[in-house]
Amino acid sequence: MRQNLTQRGKDRKRQIVERAADLFAEQGYDATSVADIVESLGVGKGVFYWYFSSKDELLLELLRVSHHDLRRRQQLAIEQEDDPVRRVEVGIRTSMQWFLEHRKYFSLFQFAANSERFNRVLRAGNDVANSDAVRHVKDAIGDGYLADYDTEMVAYAVMGVIDSLTRAYILDRPEDAERAADAAVAFCLKGLVGA
Amino acid sequence: MRQNLTQRGKDRKRQIVERAADLFAEQGYDATSVADIVESLGVGKGVFYWYFSSKDELLLELLRVSHHDLRRRQQLAIEQEDDPVRRVEVGIRTSMQWFLEHRKYFSLFQFAANSERFNRVLRAGNDVANSDAVRHVKDAIGDGYLADYDTEMVAYAVMGVIDSLTRAYILDRPEDAERAADAAVAFCLKGLVGA
Amino acid sequence: MRQNLTQRGKDRKRQIVERAADLFAEQGYDATSVADIVESLGVGKGVFYWYFSSKDELLLELLRVSHHDLRRRQQLAIEQEDDPVRRVEVGIRTSMQWFLEHRKYFSLFQFAANSERFNRVLRAGNDVANSDAVRHVKDAIGDGYLADYDTEMVAYAVMGVIDSLTRAYILDRPEDAERAADAAVAFCLKGLVGA
Amino acid sequence: MRQNLTQRGKDRKRQIVERAADLFAEQGYDATSVADIVESLGVGKGVFYWYFSSKDELLLELLRVSHHDLRRRQQLAIEQEDDPVRRVEVGIRTSMQWFLEHRKYFSLFQFAANSERFNRVLRAGNDVANSDAVRHVKDAIGDGYLADYDTEMVAYAVMGVIDSLTRAYILDRPEDAERAADAAVAFCLKGLVGA
DNA sequence: AATGAATGAGGCTTCATTCAT
DNA sequence: AATGAATGAAGCCTCATTCAT
């Protein structure tokens, strides 16, 4: 909302975003009130609206920033690989690693993905991610002897594997994170019977 | 909230559940008020509380019933197959077919899965489903030369593929439903590079 | 908002409108909160929104109804006169008499007339009133030897006289109401120097 | 809130008053926030409270100054006429001309006139104006053969004509300003039938 | 079984004003 | 003189739920 922020202002804004993310993750977006956020920060209600024009706008910003961070991290990691199959693998591992480090965003992403109001933010980033993935997948598959099905679908399938295993393992049993990532990679590359 | 319902009562109750499901799917659970539901049905508010003790209870019941229906349909289909690999395939296809026919439940399941308050209902059914799946997967994989990773994880992976492709294709472009199912099956069985 | 009102409902609604009119007249529209209204009635806040979709909507309805009443009263009185000059006189007297009896609406009308948001309601009624008045004035003036200036303007002028004298005398010194009405009539008919 | 202002300070203050008048005219006093004013000026909030102790105080000052200007302009114009009837005419024309040039103040005056809080400022000026007018009117009427009704009332009537025609024509159709002024004068002097 | 009416806590947001720098 | 930051009361409105009939 405001733009000319002093250092103090920037800090305060970041503080709000982070606290909000924590609370959203704990209780859900709808169940978390603006009052919850500012009270937990010990500041007045007006502070919130000095930095954000609405609760929705805060979530949007939060999604934009974190999603962008995830995507960037992935990009960086993938760039360093040449082999297309390795690229897919690295993509999977980086995603899961990121969620391990930023567990609180996972449920928010899921929530947003299910909401008419918020999914466009993710959609934007995801579309880029998906078309990237399609390219890698195409390269990985090679001469197209699997051209029977759309590579775009494969990209979505990979994302689904990541989401599901992240939800089931990364969040609740971080100690299994590594094994879950291995499983995701193995499954995505070879499937059930593709020994 | 009554239990001994006459036929008329049962009909009314079903009517409420269905209308609620429609509205929840359109606007989301939190954004749909009890008033929305009864108004769209043209009845008074008392009706709602005659059949349900709370809005949450309605969702819980709705989830229980529909999730059970999905699981049952799957069970029936799988039973008719002997080959374990075919069983996995049939499981996938049945899920996606069911969501094609009951699109309105998909987002509700996703919502519930993300909610502390509601996910236990799905969890119950899903745990059964998962251990079933594990069995099938184990059988499919055969003598365990892929025993390196947990079959439970594989089961989650399969579910993730189903969810992701359902969301991306089944809901928005029903005409691609078949291809999406094919893609899901192929991907789950052979993965990206599993020729 | 609601339509199927029981007798009790209709009474309650009327009660709200009247209390609101009182408070608006005393403190002004903006300065009167919905809480003021319901508290002064000893009911819960929800009651207000059962009958009106918003505070603005209440004012709109209040304006519509009362303005319509004023116009109707005028119409009835005027109809009984044949002489056009007498019609103008009766119109003026009826207006002022009505405001004497419904003092609380005067400032509301003035407020609304000054508000982008609300003046359309009055505009509608006033336009009719004005074109009626134009007809009477035309008749009163006779063969048009005053056709030099627009009769529409004259109609507005008459309204201005009514408003101004109402504000200055009717509201604050009801005992002078009669004299004020006489003055308004004399002024409108003959002006300052029109012996 | 300072008093000993440098030239720069005086300019700044005038700037605020004028911008506020613009915004008040556009959106209304209550609907215009202090934030609106300072933002539209591109300055911080402190500036406002440096020059004014409150939003109300700003309006009061604005009313005082502009109303005084109107009255002064009228005075000057009237002084140059000897004939009492001409004086009334010139008073009317000057008012309307002034509002044509300062359209933004019209609705503010109306708003203030309707407000317990603000009307005293206008009252003060208006009372003077009115007693002046009474004198002129008395002179105009001459030997009192119209002494039947109070000349004070006539003064209010004239003001009402001015307000009404100003609102209806001067503000919305400036091109009709001249005709409206003519109409006001003719009506006030001769009334409807005082040919 | 069902209706219209009522409750009241709580949610989001605004805004005049003050403060530290 | 001026800025960005902060306060907190208050306003409008929603909504799950309950009640009287």
Please give the alpha-carbon distance between the first and last residues of chain A. Answer: 55 Å
Oligomer: homotetramer
What percent of the residues of chain A sit in helical stretches (DSSP H or I)?
over 70%
User: Tell me, what's the shape of chain A?
Assistant: elongated
Number of domains of chain A: 2
Number of helices of chain A: 9
The ordered string of helix (H) and strand (E) elements of chain A is: HHHHHHHHH
Question: Using CB atoms under 8 Å apart, which protein chain pair has the greatest interface?
Answer: A-B, 51 and 49 residues
β-strand number of chain A: 0
Query: Gyration radius of chain A, to the nearest Å?
Result: 19 Å
List segments of chain A where confidence is low: pLDDT < 50 over at least 5 consecutive residues: none
What is the mean pLDDT of chain A? 90
Classify the fold: give the CATH topology of the largest domain in chain A: Tetracycline Repressor, domain 2
Largest sheet of chain A: none
- What's the CATH class of the largest domain in chain A, please? Mainly Alpha
What structural class do the secondary elements of chain A suggest? mainly alpha
Strand percent estimate of chain A: under 5%
CATH architecture of the largest domain in chain A: Orthogonal Bundle
Description:
Chain A is mainly α. Chain A has helices at residues 7-27, 34-41, 45-51, 55-79, 84-101, 103-113, 119-141, 151-170, 177-190. The longest helix of chain A is centred in the middle third of the chain and has 25 residues, at 55-79. Chain A is elongated, with a radius of gyration of 19 Å. The first copy, chain A, starts with 6 loop residues before the first helix and ends in a 5-residue tail after the last helix. The model of chain A has no long low-confidence stretch (mean pLDDT 90). Chains in contact: A-B, C-D. Chains A and B meet through α6, α7, α8 and α9 of A and α6, α7, α8 and α9 of B. Chain A binds a DNA duplex (21 and 21 nucleotides) through α1 and α3.
